[in-house]
């Protein structure tokens, strides 16, 4: 069983132009997967991507989907797709959001977590998307009261997570500039801000406040500081 809920629109558009997110929570492992969306219409594509990811990697079919009967779940294409895949949809009744309590609580908790992380780091609200992705990455790798002697990541993937690369979100970082990206007498390090764990990369994601660009350096010379972004000049 997969619990799902759409959150938004947020009052501030994120970097990348996102205004919503959709969450999918596995009932057994409590593992969370989120997709950032520019419009509600992206919910169907997000579910198809999640279904392909889950079933391809774990050799298991999605049997049920629980939602709040929002319009994004009731489109003809969404219903036709779930029916064709043999997925049983469980919709909540009118004005009873508690029937979709798992996904509702998850989205509320993530909203509060992102708000706290942004306030602590001093980064603008436009970074909420990067913050949310990092929040979920960490949450899946730590213990929860709903699971005994395991983490959501461990139950979902069947192996213990590597937590050695976890860092404080929004902290200052001194990133090594690779030789092919600098000229003679240019500094070898740049002062950046740590903003996440990019999917598909064995490294971290940083934001350079001087160039206003994000980068994905995968370099052992990266040095982190516990000073938060608001202290960067």
TrEMBL record:
Residues 1-160 form the Integrase catalytic domain. It catalyses: DNA(n) + a 2'-deoxyribonucleoside 5'-triphosphate = DNA(n+1) + diphosphate. One of its GO terms (biological process) is DNA integration. It comes from the Eukaryota. Keywords: RNA-binding, Transposition. GO terms for molecular function: DNA-directed DNA polymerase activity; RNA binding; RNA-directed DNA polymerase activity. InterPro entries: Integrase_cat-core, Retrotran_Ty1/copia-like, RNaseH-like_sf, RNaseH_sf, SH3_retrovirus. Transmembrane segments: none annotated. Pfam families: SH3_retrovirus (PF25597). One of its GO terms (cellular component) is nucleus. PANTHER family: TRANSPOSASE, PUTATIVE-RELATED (PTHR42648), TRANSPOSON-ENCODED PROTEIN WITH RIBONUCLEASE H-LIKE AND RETROVIRUS ZINC FINGER-LIKE DOMAINS (PTHR42648:SF28). This is Integrase catalytic domain-containing protein.
């Amino acid at each position: 069983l997969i619990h799902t809920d759409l959150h938004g629109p947020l009052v501030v558009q994120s970097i990348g132009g996102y205004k919503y997110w959709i969450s999918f929570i596995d009932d057994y492992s409590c593992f969370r997967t989120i997709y950032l969306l520019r419009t509600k219409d992206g919910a169907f594509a997000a579910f198809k991507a999640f279904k392909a990811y889950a079933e391809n990697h774990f050799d298991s079919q999605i049997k049920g989907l629980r939602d709040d009967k929002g319009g994004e779940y009731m489109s003809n294409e969404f219903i036709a797709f779930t029916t064709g895949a043999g997925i049983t949809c469980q919709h909540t009744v009118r004005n009873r959001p508690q029937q979709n309590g798992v996904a509702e609580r998850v989205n509320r908790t993530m909203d509060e977590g992102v708000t706290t992380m942004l306030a602590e780091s001093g980064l603008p609200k436009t970074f909420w998307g990067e913050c949310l992705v990092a929040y979920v990455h960490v949450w899946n790798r730590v213990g929860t009261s709903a699971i005994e002697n395991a983490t959501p990541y461990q139950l979902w993937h069947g192996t213990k997570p590597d937590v050695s690369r976890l860092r404080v979100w929004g902290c200052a970082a001194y990133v090594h500039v690779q030789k092919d990206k600098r000229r003679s007498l240019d500094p070898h390090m740049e002062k950046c801000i740590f903003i996440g764990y990019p999917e598909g990369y064995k490294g971290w994601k940083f934001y350079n406040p001087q160039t206003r660009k994000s980068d994905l350096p995968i370099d052992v010379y990266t040095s982190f500081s516990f000073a938060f972004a608001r202290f960067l000049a």
